Amino acid sequence: MSKTIIFLYTSLPGYMYTCIDNLAQNINKNIILVETSANKNYPIKFKSQNFRIIKYDEFKTILNNNLLLNIKMVFVSGWENTRIRSMVNILYKKGVELVLLSDQPKKGNLRQFIGQFVLANYLKKFSTIVVPGKSGYDLMLYYSVPNERIKTGLYSSHNLIFNEAKIIRDNKDAYPNYFLFDGQYITRKGVPFLIKEYLEYIRISKNPWKLKMVGKGSLEKMIPKKIENHGFIHQSQLKEIYSNAGCLILPSFEDHWPLVMHQATCAGLPLLISPYCGNYH
């Protein structure tokens, strides 16, 4: 019987669907994604027959009835969801190997100070903790996680798509002349600030670049007609947008690890970003 790998998420981000589906195609393991709430924004057709998605309650029933005994490993996203923490306790008691995935950066605030004590027992249940980079690594050390249990490299972009965008950009006769914002239309991403400053920029500039925005969110209605709003675009369709952009702009006020910086780098784009992005360094 083939071993099973579980991914336990509140709601899997769209780019991770592709990553896990690709993993399922390349290893001889069954992969199950367990979500406590389904992500309806990223419907894709899975290529692998070994990859399936089930609801949290269904998975809990399967475990309680010992119907899924051949679990090799469970990858767990974070610790803020109480249902996920409850499931971790069940799996730990069954002797299942657990791997924590966390993109929380070190902030040194009161909440993280308290977290040293509140999360101590929870973090001990994981054989490995995977973080994106230095800031997450430093947080785990702050939480007294042994150095040998911390691994980096949690996130990556769909390199093939954005490397192809770079090839297209490199072969252009003229340098692309528009700024690109790719992300959620929310205050934390700096959208109101971006709109205000861009309108001032085009007012005082003789030959301003255009600004194109890709994404969705609660602030979409405030985007003026002077800015091109493309709305949500599936990752597989982003090659054209990135290949014609001159610079990625991301003025976030808080951003743990914006994956668009990976994407833009693969596409050969300069980055105009705030220091509040977790991968700024």
Give structural attributes:
alpha/beta, about 35% helix, about 280 residues, seven-stranded parallel sheet, 12 strands, five-stranded parallel sheet, single chain
Query: What Rg do the Cα atoms give?
Result: 21 Å
Topology as a string of helices (H) and strands (E):
EHEEHEHEHHEHEHEHEEHEHE
Number of helices: 10
What's the number of extended β-strand segments? 12
SS-derived structural category? alpha/beta
Coarse shape: globular
Poorly predicted sequence stretches spanning 5 or more consecutive residues: none
The main sheet orders its strands as 3-2-1-4-5-6-7
Percent in strands: 15-25%
Largest sheet: 7 strands, parallel
Head-to-tail CA distance between termini: 45 Å
Mean pLDDT across the residues is: 88
Assign a percent range to the helix content.
Answer: 25-40%
List the helices and strands and how they pair.
Elements: E1 4-9, H1 14-26, E2 30-35, E3 51-55, H2 56-64, E4 71-77, H3 82-93, E5 98-101, H4 110-118, H5 120-123, E6 128-131, H6 134-142, E7 150-152, H7 159-170, E8 178-182, H8 191-204, E9 210-214, E10 228-231, H9 238-243, E11 247-250, H10 260-266, E12 271-273
Parallel strand pairs: 1-2, 1-4, 2-3, 4-5, 5-6, 6-7, 8-9, 8-11, 9-10, 11-12
Helix pairs in contact: 7-10
Q: What can you see in these coordinates?
A:
The protein has helices spanning 14-26, 56-64, 82-93, 110-118, 120-123, 134-142, 159-170, 191-204, 238-243, 260-266, and strands spanning 4-9, 30-35, 51-55, 71-77, 98-101, 128-131, 150-152, 178-182, 210-214, 228-231, 247-250, 271-273. It is an alpha/beta fold. A seven-stranded parallel β-sheet has the order 3-2-1-4-5-6-7. Strands 10-9-8-11-12 form a five-stranded parallel β-sheet, with helices on one face. 30% of the residues are buried. The mean pLDDT is 88.
